[in-house]
Amino acid sequence: MVHLVALVNKEDKMTKLKQMREKAGLSQSQLSKATGIHYRTLQYYEQGQMSFDSARFDKIISAALVLKCNIEDLIENQDIIDKVKEYQATL
């Protein structure tokens, strides 16, 4: 029973990528076409089966541009977010 509860909670967790896509009012298909991220890969990212944090940098940038958001709005890993902020502070 405990195993089932963990599975349900994992499915309920929405990734930042999915949150930002929905906030922008785009379908997965629209985001896929606009960013060049394969539709099925986008689904894997949104379902948490693959980490968007480890996507190619150009794909992360493309998604941020299309969704009109900061990179940090799409990245889950706080260590990566801190590095992005550290980099931005040097500009």
Q: Topology, please?
A:
Blueprint: H1 2-12, H2 16-24, H3 28-35, H4 39-47, H5 57-67, H6 78-89
Written account of the structure:
This protein has 91 residues and is mainly alpha-helical. It has a single domain, classed as lambda repressor-like DNA-binding domains (434 Repressor (Amino-terminal Domain), Orthogonal Bundle), CATH 1.10.260.40. The protein contains six helices and no strands. The termini are far apart. The model is unreliable at 1-10 (pLDDT under 50).
Quick synopsis:
66% of the residues lie in helices and 0% in strands. The protein is mainly α and 91 residues long.
Structural features:
91 residues; 434 Repressor (Amino-terminal Domain); disordered N terminus
Please name the fourth-level CATH homologous superfamily. lambda repressor-like DNA-binding domains
How much of the sequence is in beta strands?
under 5%
Number of domains: 1
* Name of the CATH architecture: Orthogonal Bundle
Order of helices and strands: HHHHHH
